Every structure is written in C-alpha cells, then in structure tokens.
Amino acid sequence: MVSKSKNINLKGNINVSRIKIIPTSIEDYLDKENSTAKNILQLLMVKKTVTRQDIAEHLPNVLVRAINATVATLRRNRIIYVSGWEKSPKLRPRAKLSIGDQPDEFVPTSKGHQQRKMTGEEKISQAIGARYDAINKALVPARNMKQQRVVNQRYLEHVQGIR
C-alpha cells in the first residue's frame, strides 16, 4: 500500500519525495533492511511461537518500547497473532505470538479475578442470602423427609385457605 502525502508549494508543483510505503505483507517487512519487524519475523520463523520476553532476549539492543510498538503494528496488520498464553510468575499471563492471520486467543481469567469483578448488587444479594441462610439454620429445626412433607402440606393448606 502506498500512502502519498502531497506537498504543494506556492508554484503548484507536487513534492513526491515524501511518499511513504506502508508494508502490509510478510515479504514487505522482510525486504526492509535492519528493521525490528524483520528481526521479530525471522525469530518467529525459526521458533514458531515466542513471547515478548523471548524477543527482548533475542534483540538486546532494541528498547522494550520499540518491541511492543512493533508487535502491536504487526498484530494490527494481521501478520502475527496471539496463539496461546503462558503462565508467568507475575500476575498476568504472557501472550505467545505466532505468524499468521488468525483470530487471537482469549486471555484466561482466574477465579479470583472473576470474584473481584462482581458488581455491587451481586455482592449485596450474596451477603443477604448468606444472612438469611444463617437465620434459617438457627430458627428452623432439622427435619427428616416425613416431617418436612407434613410442614409443607400444612403451609400449602394455609396459603390456599383450606384450614
């Protein structure tokens, strides 16, 4: 894809020295000399799946910010994708990157994260439910099935107005 930014000077001439070539395929990135994207793609061709940490270890002279920006650009252009997730010693899992035009894998969520994500209403209803369970356990005596059927029958008769 070619993006032309036209600069028109006062004489009406067009300055074509500012034509940018935007790479959109793997070949476009591999044709570039000495680029971070080229080095990342070559690493991916050898290892098949890598994490950003692997890329940083393989390219020690490149800033982590530049690696992250390049990976984001490659993902946006659908050159690479997140093929899986790897557990890390820290809180967040690491994305495993692969070459291809496939949809990304979803980030796995932990049970603790899902608990923290509860809304205020859910927390209140859970607390009220626990409170009613405690009251019910304290007030209602333990019954066997036969005794419970008798209580249920009396309740139904009371509600229906039979008794």
What does this protein look like?
This protein has 163 residues and is of the alpha+beta class. It folds into two domains: 25-99, Arc Repressor Mutant, subunit A; 118-160. The chain is built from seven helices and six strands. The protein has helices spanning 26-31, 36-47, 52-58, 64-76, 111-116, 120-139, 145-160, and strands at residues 2-4, 7-8, 14-15, 19-21, 80-86, 94-99. The N and C termini lie far apart (85 Å). The model is unreliable at 1-7 (pLDDT under 50).
Task: Describe the protein's topology.
Layout: E1 2-4, E2 7-8, E3 14-15, E4 19-21, H1 26-31, H2 36-47, H3 52-58, H4 64-76, E5 80-86, E6 94-99, H5 111-116, H6 120-139, H7 145-160
Antiparallel strand pairs: 1-4, 2-3, 5-6
Short recap of the structure:
The protein has helices at 26-31, 36-47, 52-58, 64-76, 111-116, 120-139, 145-160; strands at 2-4, 7-8, 14-15, 19-21, 80-86, 94-99. It is an alpha+beta fold and 163 residues long.
